[in-house]
Amino acid sequence: MLEEIYDQLDARLATADADLAARYPGDRPGRQPVHTVYVPADRVTADLPAAWGGLALAALDEHGLPYAPDLDGLVRAKLADEPIEDLRIDFEDGYGRRDDAQEDAHARAAAKFLAEGTTPFSGIRIKCLEADLRRRAVRTLKILLDEMGGVPAGFVVTLPKVTSVAQVEAMVALCAALESTPGELRFEIQIETPQSILGPDGTALVAPMIHASAGRCTALHYGTYDYSASCGIAAAYQAMDHPAADHAKAVMQAAAALTGVRLSDGSTNVMPVGDRTRDAWALHSRLVRRSLERGFYQGWDLHPAQLPTRFAANYAFYREGADEAVTRLDAYLNRTESGFLDEPATARALASYLRRALDCGALDPSDLPFPSTTLEAL
């Protein structure tokens, strides 16, 4: 009798089982960058990463440390060796509208730069797919791909101002038309319009957008200022920690959970320059830490002097919690007492936390009492 019941349940749930496996494969493996640096296409120079690292180090020397002294060695080494983890060359708001010849030239120059692979992760932000801009968006992407001769490792296209599932479906078709190898061109969706959070029928469109991407969507990036402005928030109060921002990001987080699509918080437009440097550092450090605590492990940086607080906030976040995470995970693995009743889901979260700590350089594998490969097995 039981075998008959088992077979009936398997048959009844076969479609749902397959749908769950396809739509919710779990977290994407591999390293996630801690930030994305946005640089307008007309400001890209051959020495961009080194130049940003040098400017960040100069800001530290001029204004003093905006973090605990014990982090200084780690931060300075990072700024010297890998100041930019993920670079997005911007052809949208930070770049503006140019004549075709000028944008064509910048697209070719960007392609040459990106082909060099000077950062671990990279890509471009094209203009949106609204009627008046879509031809320029497609033209820029086509020029770039042609000049590069393919899609480099770690390359992604940022699709901004998405207002409908149809635009995501159109982006899938565009990727298929432009790529040389099927499935190689990926994109991230920028969530910066209220329509992506709440569609005209009252549903949260960000979830259908993910599932309409045919597996090409790698991340959701929150756009702080476009979203805030569209919601009618006064300029002085537009910020990553505004309640409207928290609502949008909570919807994004639920929509992306277990899909393999990652999350990135937005930016602050308070730049650490001149007499405002120390106050801007304090704000940036607080916002980065806030994002980390809320499960947004990536964010935007717009100025070289934001790099010290980006990396320091990440190092502090992981180093402060490392001992407890190691103790709890070690106790879980060895079935010993830790003072916590951790279940498999929590063990996976502890492992993910430690993997991220290793990936960003906050911890070294020698800091763990078990092989780092153990983290991948959970």
TrEMBL record:
> Single Gene Ontology BP term?
oxaloacetate metabolic process
Alphabetical list of Pfam families matching this protein: DUF6986
Q: Which molecular-function annotations from GO does this UniProt entry contain?
A: lyase activity; magnesium ion binding
Name the keywords, alphabetized: Lyase, Magnesium, Metal-binding
Q: What cofactor does its activity depend on?
A: Mg(2+)
Under InterPro entries, the record lists: DUF6986, Pyrv/PenolPyrv_kinase-like_dom, Pyrv_kinase-like_dom_sf
Q: Does the keyword Metal-binding apply?
A: yes
Keyword match Lipoprotein = no
| Record protein name field | Citrate lyase beta subunit
From the broadest rank down, the organism's phylogenetic lineage runs: Bacteria, Bacillati, Actinomycetota, Actinomycetes, Streptosporangiales
